[in-house]
Each structure stands twice: as C-alpha cells, then as structure tokens.
Design brief:
- This protein is an all-alpha fold.
- 80% of the residues lie in helices and 0% in strands.
- Helix 1 runs antiparallel to helix 2.
- The longest helix has 21 residues.
- The radius of gyration is 14 Å and the shape is elongated.
Length: 56
Amino acid sequence: MAGIMLGLADMLEPVVAKVWAELPADFPEHIRESIMGGLTERATRLTAENIWQASR
C-alpha cells in the first residue's frame, strides 16, 4: 500500500500543473488557489517518511 501512495505522490505535481494550465483565464482566483493549495499541501504530506510511519 505504501508503494501505491508513493506512486500517487510522484504523479500529483505534474497533474496539478496540468490542471492549473488548463483552467480558463477567467476562473475565480480564490477558488483556484484554494483547490491547488490544498492539493499541493496533500502532496507534501505524502512523503516516504510519513507514509512509512502511518503504515506501522
């Protein structure tokens, strides 16, 4: 399971960048920042150390 979560963490940054690039120019900034900030924060929590600690 930890391997799957690490794989997801590795994929998240490029996905966030792709979504960011594809949002319409008039997409509300406060919503974009909230969503993207939340995803980025979650990605930083998916570190090898955190995942291995949680799996014990």
